[in-house]
Amino acid sequence: MLKIASWNINGLRASLKSGAFLKWVNNVAPDIIGLQEVKANSEQVSDPFWKDDGTNHYSELWHSGDRKGYSGALLLSKLNLKSSKLGLDKPEFLAEGRVIEACFDNFTLISAYFPNGGRNSERLEYKLHFNEVFLERINTLQKEGHRVIFMGDLNVAHRDLDVARPDENKNNSGFLEVEREWVDRVVSLGFQDSFRILNPGLKDAYSYWDPWRKRRERNIGWRIDYIFICDDLVPYLQKAYIQPEFLGSDHCPIGIEIDV
Length: 260
Hints:
Deoxyribonuclease I, Chain A, globular, six-stranded mixed sheet, 260 residues, alpha+beta, 5 helices
């Protein structure tokens, strides 16, 4: 059984220093880990635990942003890679370090940190453009015969069920109609939200909480972190979960177990 996990770590170095990341790895033991918003590059993380030869040995793929301390992605894997690719096929998206694509024997996996469109209209346009180019990429991979899994911080809550206060957030980025319709288009291409396959009506299940007014303690959150799997892989999905009990970020880890 393969364990695949995703976590917007919101600062890898802080999570390594606190021990939160290692504690989670020791408890969950994922085979593949996609981290977003790592805010670091490989030169800034010396002697990480995953380079040991023991149980927690992982190979690593970094897609670091040009701007220090901002964005960035890291993929850790115990499986052998056939090939890999960093970024999307547009130069404007390379600088922020958001996408890692990895081809394995039985599937292709993408770990991605989608832009937040909340700062201004220009940033929202950037996000929507990113979404379109990403959609083109997963569609191309499917047409080429790949069985695709993609995961990460999508920065959008898909349904009313995925945000604690939907009425208050209708006009806020992360819950705009145009953003939610994009997820509908992902589904129309033949992808399914792994968590909702196995937990279709579960309420109060969130992966992100604003870090103010004790929103995490009060569970006033958003589910904006996802693992989508193509229709061909749905019969092999065994578990899908969110892990709010693990601290270390304003997001929590999510994961699946799949027999592939």
